[in-house]
Amino acid sequence: MAIGFGNLNGAVTANIYRASDKPRYRLGHGIVLAYIAIGFICSVIFGVLLKRENARRDRGERDEVIEGIENKRADEKNGRYESVHDARVDKGDEWSGFRYTL
């Protein structure tokens, strides 16, 4: 996705930095600043969402049922596994023990 946006920006840049706008290139610089602002806002939102997901996992809302391990927070809807290793391998980053790093 990032590569796609980078390629798209190359096409946009060729059209927003017009010779008629020199030497200040207000249109071009304005659009680039808008891209930077959008990227910053998206990064902040993504960080907040990851922190919320980590908090859910800390509270046990994503705990799987592991046979032989007593866990009152575990829920069948999150899956039933024979071992923690099986849950980790099967679920990947959706495993309840996985934490997103920020």
UniProtKB/TrEMBL annotation:
One of its GO terms (cellular component) is membrane. Keywords: Membrane, Transmembrane, Transmembrane helix, Transport. It is found in: Membrane. One of its GO terms (molecular function) is transmembrane transporter activity. It comes from the Eukaryota. It is a multi-pass membrane protein. The chain crosses the membrane at residues 27-50. PANTHER family: PERMEASE-RELATED (PTHR43791), TRANSPORTER, PUTATIVE (AFU_ORTHOLOGUE AFUA_1G01812)-RELATED (PTHR43791:SF19). This is Uncharacterized protein. It comes from Asterophora parasitica.
